[in-house]
Amino acid sequence: MTPLSSAMPALAPDTAPLCDPVTLEIIRGAIMATQREMEALIERTAISAFIREKKDFYTALFDERGVMAVGSMVPIFGDLTSPVFEHFPRETMKPGDLYWYNDCYGSKGAVTHSNDQVLLAPVFHGDRLCAFVMSWAHFADIGGLHPGSISPDATSIYQEGIIIPPTKLVDEGVVNDTALAIFHRNSRFPAQSEGDMSALMASVKLGVTRVAEVVARHGADVVSDALAQLLDRTRTLVRRRLAETFDYGTYKFSDQIDSDGHGNGPFSLRFAITREKGANGEDRFIFDATESDDQAPGPVNLIMNKGVPGMALGLYFLGGDPSQVVNAGGPLAIDEVRLREGSIVQPRFPAPLGMRGLTMMRMLAVLNGLVNRGKGGAPAAHSAYVVTIMRGTFGKETGTPKPFLLADGIGVGYGARDFADGIDAVYFVAQENYPVEFLEGGYPIRLRQYGVVPDSGGPGRFRGGTGIIREYEILADEALLAIRIDGVKNPPWGYGGGMSGGGGSIVVNPDTPEERQIPPLSDGTALKKGDILRIRTGGGGGMGHPYDRPAERVLEDVRGGFVTAEAAKTFYGVVIADDQLDAAATARLRADRPATKPFHRKTYIDELA
C-alpha cells in the first residue's frame, strides 16, 4: 500500500488580487450561468430518458491548469482533466479541439462506470489557453452483457460495455466520425446514442463560446485570478470547518453493503480522518480508506478518485450556500488521501463497477458518520437509491415486436437531521422521478400504485425520511428484470437515540398464489404480461430519542400515512385510536423511557463495526 496524495496542482502563492470583489461576483455569476445554460441544452436536446427525464448529466468549468473551478452539486467528481492531459498535453491543444473518454481505470475513478461519457474542451483567448469546459452524461446502452450495460451479473468491466480511453474526438473543428461510428455500433439503441452524443457535444461547444465571452469581457488575467480566488475561498472554508469538526487525533467510522449479487458480503467501508500538526506547524488533514474490505467479485466496486472524499465533505460543509462555489477547493483542503489497491474502493482492473452507486451511497453515509464522530451535525444514514432495469419486447400481436429498455431509478428516504426530519422520497441527484404519464406513454407498463412506505423512516425525535412504493403491471410480451436494492440486511443507521430506517423489498405478484420474493441485487428475473411487480424502497435513519418526538407530530405522521398506529405505540410511545391521540395512555407509556446508545442498526450499539 502506497499513500496517495492529491495530484491536483497547488494554488498560486499569495499575491495582490487582480480581480476586485465586485468583478469576482460578476464572473462567478457568469460562469455559473454558463454551466446552467449548458445543462439546459443537454436536458432539452438529449434523446434517452435517463438523460432527458432523469437528468443524469453534469457540467463543470476548469481553470487553465485543469483544476475544477465550478462544478455541480454532485459529490462524485474527481480529477477529471488529468486523464486527458496524460495523453494530450495542454501545450499541444488548439482551439476547436474536443476530448472524450469513459475509461474508469484509465481515469483513476474520475468516471466511475462505463456508461458515463466525459467530453472536455479547451477555451482559448487568442493563442492563450484560459480554461476548460466539460459535459458528462450517462448513456443508456453502450454494449456489454445485457441491454443497459450495467448488470448485477457482471464479473468483469469488459461485460459492462465499450471502453473509450482518452481520445481526441474533434481536432481543430474536424470530427472523428469513425470513432463515433464504432461507439454507436456497440449500442443496441444507436439512435439514442447518436442523439445523446450530439446533445453533449453541443453543450460543450456552447460552454466554450460562453466562457470565451467572459474572458474577452474581463481579460484573461482577471478571469484567471477570479477562478483562483474562488478555489481558495472554498478551500479555506472547508479547512476551517474541518478544524471546527475534528480535534487533533484520528476518527474512524464504518458501514456495510449487503452483497455483491454473487453471494458475497457484506462488504465494509472503513474510513478514518486524522488531524495532526505538520512539520511547518500547520494543520494536516489525512483521509484513510485502507482498512476497507477487499474488492468484490460482483459489480459493487467503486474506484474512489483521490478528489472524491474532499469533494463530498466540501459539499457538506458548503451546505448549499448559494454564495459559495462547488469546486476543487474541497479536495485541495485534504492534505493526503490513502487508498489500498485491491480494496472495494480501489479495485484492481478488470473488476466490474456497474453497481458502484451502492458503494458510493454508503461512502457518503460513512462520511456522515465520521462527522458525527467528531463534533457532530451530520444527518443519520440514508438509503441507497434503487435502480430497476427491464428489458424485453412488446407488440407481438402486430407481427413485429419491438424491443424496449426501461431503467428506472427510484427514490428513497434520507436520514434525519439534528433540527428536522429526514426528507421523504428523495430522488438522488440525476435520478429524478419518471412521471406516471411518461412511463405509461413510453413503455409497456401500467403504474398501479405510487406513494410512501409507512414505517420505513427510522423513528426518532426527528423521523427518518420514508421510502417509496411503486407497483408496475407488466404489459410487455416478455421482460427480464434486473434490480438493485441495498440496506436490507444492514439498514441505514440511526443516531443519537434515533433508530435505523427500513429496508427495501421486491415482490412479483404480491398477495397471490404466484407470489415470489426477488433477491434485492439480482438479474434475469423473467416477467410476462399481466405480472405485478411491487418495489418498496428503504427509509433513512432517525435522530434523537423517539419518545422526544411531540405526540402531536406522531399523530400527524399517522394521519398522513408515514407511520402506522402500531409503530406509533411501539417505537414512539404514542397511543392513537380512531385517528385520535390518547394523551393519558401516551403519558403512561412514555413514563417508561427505553435506554439508548449513540447508534442504532436493528438494535442500539455504541459504534458500527
UniProtKB/TrEMBL annotation:
GO BP terms, alphabetized: glutathione metabolic process
Assigned GO CC terms: cytosol
The keyword Ligase appears for this protein: yes
Enzyme class, broadest EC rank: ligase
A GO term for molecular function: 5-oxoprolinase (ATP-hydrolyzing) activity
Full protein name: Acetophenone carboxylase delta subunit
Domain of life: Bacteria
Organism: Devosia equisanguinis
KW Ligase (keyword) present: yes
Keyword annotations from UniProtKB, A to Z: Ligase
Residue ranges constituting the Hydantoinase B/oxoprolinase domain according to the UniProt record: 20-546
Pfam families attached to this UniProt entry: Hydantoinase_B (PF02538)
EC number: 6.4.1.8
